[in-house]
Amino acid sequence: MKKYRIGQIVPSSNVTMETEIPAIFRSRETVLPERFTFHSSRMRMKKVTKEELEAMDAMSLKCAQELSDAHVDVMGYACLVAIMSMGRGYHCVSEVNLHQETIKNDFPTPIVTSAGALINGLKVLGAKKVAVITPYMRPLTDLVVDYIEHQGFEVVDSIALEIPDNLEVAAQDPMNLLDIYKRLNLEGVDVLVASACVQMPSLEAIDLIQKEIGIPVTSAAVCTTYEMMKKLGLEAKAPIGGALLSGKY
């Protein structure tokens, strides 16, 4: 039985990344033999503003060093909007920088950013046109939309819930998404991103929405978990809620 250590670089006010991602891995444990432990290092951030996000991102390298000390098998950077607000394609820069820190610490470690994972997940799903729900203020949501479109996708519609306080984001009832998504224009959409934020809970609602609309529904947390599994060399067929959460690999 192989055991893996999952490292997470987490905003100090994020409480969802350490619940949804372990939940998916724990579900996998019910059908497959591998086991997982979870280890976090935190970056200070309370308000989801561009200024706080930039300051927080500067702390990510220290977090990578700390997790490297623990010899984790993969690291996930758990803030999509921090990466996307730093400029188009920044997830590639961040992943290289974080990996270099692990090399300098003599334990090279695969890196996943939630921003890069969402982009890769949309590619795996064959998406061309997407719709997105975010908890961010509209200007940050527009940055996320621009970032996704720069990666080759058309964002047909987006919802910005405009919640600036990060703990309030985590306090949202995921089942509210069953009503929220109905405000989107889904005409021609290939994939719905029910939460483009690893702090806004969505895992409980993803499969229910997917059954209602008949197209793949994913989230930043699901895509991040999928990408972690792939980096670990584990089987993972699709970055959608049901496939990962129910252990249907």
Features:
249 residues; alpha/beta; 4-stranded parallel β-sheet; 8 strands; globular
Explain what you see.
The chain is an alpha/beta fold and 249 residues long. The protein starts with a strand and ends with a helix. The model has no long low-confidence stretch (mean pLDDT 92). Helix 3 (60-69) crosses helix 5 (90-104). The longest helix is centred in the middle third of the chain and has 15 residues, at 90-104. It is globular. It has helices spanning 17-29, 50-57, 60-69, 80-84, 90-104, 114-124, 138-150, 166-170, 177-180, 203-213, 220-231, 241-245; strands at 3-11, 35-43, 74-77, 111-113, 129-134, 154-160, 191-195, 217-219. The protein has a four-stranded parallel β-sheet, with helices on both faces. It contains twelve helices and eight strands.
User: Strands of the largest sheet, in order across it?
Assistant: 2-1-3-4
Percent range of helical residues: 40-55%
The count of β-strands is: 8
What share of the residues does DSSP label as strand, in percent? 15-25%
Task: Report the principal-axis shape.
Answer: globular
Q: What is the CA-CA span between the terminal residues?
A: 18 Å
Q: What would the average pLDDT be, to the nearest integer?
A: 92
Query: Based on helices, strands and strand pairing, what is the structural class?
Result: alpha/beta
